[in-house]
Structures are given as structure tokens and as C-alpha cells.
Specification:
Number of domains: 3
Strand order of the largest sheet: 1-2-9-12-11-10
Radius of gyration: 30 Å
Number of helices: 12
Strand content: 25-35%
Structural class: alpha+beta
Length: 642
């Protein structure tokens, strides 16, 4: 692979912020003044991904050379350490001249550095596994000799991926060279087909994974009241996400609501005047500091207290919970408010020592509002926002009745002045109307049926955007259905299936229902095994037929379904909930496309077995009918040229 290819795969291999491969725990070196880095050897980079399907056009296969047995590489797996046959990008290994001026780096478990080899003038990277011994980043096997000249690793070299991986190949032997072609991907594992380069003979299948050597941390000293030991973490164990240390909850205390996003993430602080003053002082000092602070030039580490700019252009204290420096994305939790956000390095600042959590602990506690529902609806959020914005004083009671409970415990809240039960009020607001109707002994047939004309649609952007394609059944006619990527209304509409299923499986909605033309209804779609919103287009063979043609509103699909799968719609599943997708006609699409052209169009949109894909749209024009758009997609039209 040449240098240009290397740059290309480094661009392609950046992980999603919330996805990517499992990482080892992010421990810190103990020695003061030492460069502190995660032990995961180049962070989010997965070296074997140079053969992933995402880069198939250029890197669909790669040469791997079996280098050493995995146990010798400190990897607890029956695999071989493999050194991919690539030419390293220029400047990848640090040179002796750069290292000579750096202070020596004492070995510490989990710490990365570089070792100066004076004989060759090269400086291979390493990760310290046992104190003095260390595995080299570039070579799966190897240990640092006693007295090795170890130096800090500059950030620009830490950004380069490790050039080793784990190859699972039952028939392999050390020294074998393979051509690996990706067949599929499962989590962090690439399933590959192997061909022996020397003999050109197929060697069956294998797997390729990141090489994550085991770091031997000393065992924690046991205590008399120690709990049973938890299973040892493996190299693929998910890292623990740090939490803000928050004060415990006090029974019968008076509090102010700070923020509420879901029942388990309710944040409160004491209404005591002195604590209010301390809270305001912290917020004000951080805001003033942020006016002149300069952004960080190096990524923060997980668990670090930082100062971050919020959408209101003000600065607040935050805890760094996750890091993806390759994508310049950092998951932060604002300490004084509890809300989380993904921030960029340009908006993150160092926290002054006198304002860190260790110097000024937060006064805000987390609580769980005791209720049966798992989330808040819009009405509940509006009610809670009112309590928050008006700084309404509340009485907090621990659900257990204990005098004190850990932050995050279940609580009950009531308004101090009126004794209004907050839990009961929020629970009632979150209770669906059909449940209330069922509890009253009502009949769903007495409820007014919503019509298609009452359904709202959200317009597509007029300029360039990416369309998530949900249906391609009408592609031959130049029509598809979809929504803008990341559209909140679409996510909300598509998430209705669980609530619709609960409604349709209840005693209130057990009987089939035949709607009128253009009346909205609920239909069970066997293709997706979901209850979805629909509208009646026509009955298959006229009145009295056992099947009906319906438009599945959130998928844009026409479906012929038995009437027995239809249920009456409740207005609460329509009001304020626009359809997830729009009907899209593609401009300049061939009027009579060939099978090859249709296949090329699906290939361009990367349509999967479910009929879901993506399309880059240059322009969208709203048509007269609600939810109908004419779009320009010149890249698609060019891709269809045979």
C-alpha cells in the first residue's frame, strides 16, 4: 500500500463517536509529569480495517504476514500476531534527532512511549505492559531491555494507527503470508477469506481483529469487608464511563429542579440560600473565566474536569466522559446541570485548579423520579420545564424512606407551596389517552377517526442533503420514499411502533377494523413485524373483500394486507407527529429503465435487503400534494449510465 492509500484508509477508518470497537480501560500513569495516554495503542484506530467493506473500492484485500503466536504477543487468544504488508507513511517512526532532546520516560503500566535505538537511529513506539517490559506498537512481539532509552511519544505519532493486528487462521503457521479478502463484518471482527501467497492455494476462512495486548495491573489490596471479586476484564471489555461525583439525596429536603430529560436523569440542588449562593458563584466564576480562556490544544482525557462552551455561548464546568480525538468529538456532561453534549476541541478549555471537582465539589444531585413510564412525553417535559424555569421549591422524599440515599436513587417530589404531587402529575401526563379510555371502560369505536388530510409532513431541505431511502418498490418509475438524515421527526415517528404494539395488543383494540378511504388506521406489517401507521387506499376487490391496499405512512410503501391486521387509529398517534418520510420523484430518471440501470441505481444508493439506502440530493422542489417532492440527484443519474 502506498502513502496515498495509507492517508485514504486513515480517513476512512475513523470510528463513529458512539460506535467503534471496544476499548480497554483508560488508566493513567502514576508518575507525575509523565505523558499520560490510554493503553489502547493509538486510540480508536483498528489497523485491520484497511480491508473493511467500507473501503472496498480501494482496500478490499490486504496482505498479512503471520509474525508470532498470540500468547507471545500478550494477547489471550489462539491467534497469530500479523504484520500487514504495507509501506509506512513518511515520518511514521520518530527519528533519533527528535528524541535526543526529550527527557527520559520512566516505565509505567499502560503508558505509551518510544524507545531510542541509537544503533539504527529509529524509535519504535511501545506500550508498557508490566512496568519495564513492553510490547512494541509496530511489532506484536518484543520487550524492552533493561535500561532501554525510553522517551515520551509526541501526539502526532500517537495519532498513527498500530500496524499490527490479530489474525485468526486455524491452518496458519508462523511465517505464512496471506492475501485476506473481507467477506463480512461482525462487531469488531472482520471475517476474511484466506489465500496462501506462496502456493496461491485457498486456506479457508479466518478472522482479523485489533491487537490489544493485556496490561498487567497490580491486584487491588483486599480488605476484610471486600465484596466478591468481579470477573477479570478482557481486552475487549467495554470501558466504564466516568460519572460526576454528586452529593447524596436527603429525605424531606427542599430542592430546586435543575434539569430533567428522562425519569432516571432528574437533577436537583438544595434551595438553601447559602448553597444557592455557592452554586451561583461557581457558575459565575466559570462564565467570567471562559471569556478570556483559550481552547485546549491537546485532547482532554476521560474523567478530566474541563470548561466548555454551551449553545448559549456561555462557559460551564463539564466532565469529559468519552473521547474520540480522531473525529474531534468529546462527550461532556455539564456538572452543574446534568445534561450531556458532544463538543469539539475548539470549544473546550482547561479548568482552573481552584474550580475542579476536587476543589469545588458540585452541589447538584441526580435522582430518579419514581414512576412506571420509562420516558417523558412532550406534555410532561413542558410541565417539568415550568417547574425548572420558575425555580419552584420542591419537597424531596426518598422512595425507600431512608434519611439519606445515594445520588441517582428513586425519589418522590411535591410542590412545597401547594403540595402538588409531581410524580403523580407527570405519570398522568405520560399516560396514553387510550389507557385512560380503557380504565374508564370506554369503547374505541366512540373515538373520532383521524383522516389523511390531518397528517402533517415535514419539508425536505431545498439545498444539498443526504436522503435516507426507506422504500424502493417504485424505483423503476423513478420514485422512492425517504427522509433527511438525522431528522428528529423521523426518528420520533419510527419509534412509535412500540407504543402502537402496546395499544393494538390491549383489550381496547383487540378487534379488526376496516377504515374508510383515506382514514388513518394502524396496520400490522408482516414484512417488518411491526405495527405501523397507515391509510386505506382501496379494498382489493371492492367492498367486503378480505384484503386492503394501504399506504404505510412512515415508510412510503404500498402494501396489500388482510383486513384482520388492521386496527382503529387513536388521534394521539397522529397529532403533532408528522409522517417520517416523503414521497420523492427523481428528476431525469429514465422513463423506461433497463434492469441493469435499476440495479446500478440500487447499488449507488447502497440499498440493503430491507430496501433501505442513502441518496445524495442536490436540490429538492416541493410539489402540490402534501409530502411530495421532486429532487435532483445528478450523481445517481451518472451512476446509472451503462
Amino acid at each position: 500500500m502506498n502513502e496515498q492509500c495509507t492517508d485514504q484508509y486513515m480517513q476512512l477508518l475513523q470510528d463513529d463517536f458512539h460506535g467503534g470497537l471496544p476499548r480497554q480501560p483508560d488508566r493513567q500513569a502514576e508518575a507525575a509529569g509523565v505523558v499520560r495516554v490510554p493503553e489502547t495503542l493509538d486510540g480508536a484506530w483498528y489497523r485491520a480495517r484497511c480491508v473493511s467493506a467500507g473501503a472496498a473500492a480501494l482496500l478490499d484485500a490486504s496482505k498479512l504476514s503471520s509474525w508470532a503466536a498470540a500468547p507471545d504477543c500478550r494477547a489471550a487468544a489462539p491467534r497469530y500476531g500479523a504484520l500487514p504488508g504495507v509501506q509506512l507513511p513518511a515520518g511514521a517512526p520518530a527519528r533519533a534527532g527528535e528524541t535526543a532532546s526529550c527527557a527520559a520516560l520512566p516505565p509505567a503500566r499502560g503508558l505509551r512511549g518510544r524507545m531510542l535505538r541509537r544503533a539504527t537511529g529509529r524509535c519504535p513506539r511501545y506500550s508498557c505492559l508490566l512496568g519495564a517490559p513492553a510490547a512494541q506498537v509496530r511489532q506484536p512481539a518484543g520487550a524492552l531491555a533493561a535500561g532501554a532509552d525510553c522517551r515520551p511519544l509526541p501526539p502526532r505519532y500517537g495519532a498513527l494507527p498500530e500496524y499490527s493486528c490479530l489474525l485468526g487462521a486455524p491452518a496458519a503457521q508462523i511465517g505464512d503470508n496471506f492475501m485476506c479478502t473481507v467477506v463480512s463484518k461482525s462487531g469488531g471482527t472482520l471475517n476474511v477469506a484466506l489465500v496462501n501467497i506462496a502456493t496461491n492455494a485457498p486456506q479457508g476462512s479466518g478472522t482479523v481483529q485489533r491487537w490489544l495486548p493485556t496490561v498487567d495491573y497490580p491486584a487491588e489490596p483486599a480488605t476484610a469487608a471486600a465484596a466478591p471479586a468481579a470477573p477479570a476484564a478482557t481486552a475487549t471489555a467495554s470501558p466504564s464511563i466516568p460519572e460526576v461525583p454528586r452529593p447524596p439525596l436527603t429525605d424531606k429536603s427542599r430542592v430546586i429542579l435543575v434539569d430533567a430529560t428522562e425519569p432516571s436523569r432528574l437533577f436537583v440542588r438544595s434551595s438553601d440560600v447559602e448553597q444557592q449562593r455557592e452554586f451561583d458563584d461557581i457558575v459565575m466564576e466559570i462564565a467570567v473565566y471562559g471569556m478570556t480562556a483559550k481552547p485546549l490544544t491537546e485532547p482532554p482525557v476521560v474523567g478530566q474536569t474541563v470548561v466548555a462552551k454551551y449553545t448559549d455561548d456561555m462557559c460551564y464546568r463539564a466532565l469529559c466522559r468519552r473521547v474520540n480525538s480522531k473525529l474531534n468529538k468529546y462527550l461532556l456532561e455539564y456538572i452543574e446541570y446534568g445534561n450531556t453534549t458532544v463538543a469539539y476541541l475548539e470549544g473546550i478549555y482547561a479548568c482552573p485548579p481552584e474550580l475542579t471537582l476536587s476543589s469545588r465539589p458540585t452541589l447538584v444531585s441526580q435522582a430518579t423520579l419514581q414512576m412506571s413510564q420509562k420516558s417523558f412525553n412532550d406534555a410532561a417535559m413542558q410541565f417539568l420545564d415550568g417547574l425548572k424555569n420558575e425555580t419552584t421549591e420542591l419537597i424531596l422524599s426518598t422512595a425507600s424512606g431512608a434519611a439519606s440515599a445515594a445520588s441517582g436513587s428513586a425519589v418522590r417530589l411535591s410542590v412545597a407551596q401547594s403540595a402538588l404531587d409531581v410524580n403523580r402529575t407527570v405519570s398522568a401526563l405520560c399516560t396514553p389517552e387510550w389507557v385512560k379510555l380503557l380504565e374508564r371502560g370506554g369503547d374505541v369505536m366512540d373515538v373520532r377517526a383521524p383522516m389523511y388530510e390531518e397528517l402533517d409532513y415535514v419539508d425536505l431541505p431545498s439545498g444539498s442533503f443526504e436522503l435516507v431511502v426507506l422504500d424502493t418498490n417504485m424505483l423503476r418509475g423513478g420514485s422512492i420514499a425517504g427522509h433527511e438524515r438525522g431528522a428528529p421527526h423521523a426518528a420520533k415517528a419510527l419509534a412509535l411502533s412500540e407504543a402502537l404494539a402496546e395499544y393494538c395488543n390491549s383489550a381496547l383494540c383487540k378487534d379488526p377494523y376496516l377504515p374508510k378511504l383515506e382514514e388513518l388506521c394502524v396496520a400490522h406489517c408482516p414484512k417488518r413485524n411491526l405495527w405501523v401507521r397507515a391509510t386505506l387506499v382501496q379494498q382489493e376487490s371492492g367492498a367486503g373483500s378480505a384484503a386492503a391496499e394501504l399506504l404505510l405512512l412512515d415508510y412510503g410503501e404500498l402494501a396489500l394486507l388482510p383486513v384482520a391486521r388492521l386496527r382503529k387509529m387513536m388521534p394521539e398517534f397522529v397529532t403533532g407527529l408528522p409522517a417520517a418520510c416523503c414521497s420523492v420523484e427523481i428528476k431525469d430518471f429514465p422513463k423506461e429503465p433497463t434492469d441493469a440501470q435499476v440495479a446500478l441505481a440500487k447499488q449507488h444508493m447502497k440499498v440493503d435487503d430491507r430496501g433501505v439506502g442513502t441518496l445524495r440530493v442536490a436540490r429538492a422542489l416541493k410539489q402540490q400534494a402534501p409530502g411530495d417532492f421532486l429532487v435532483e440527484a445528478p450523481e445517481l443519474i451518472r451512476a446509472m449510465t451503462v
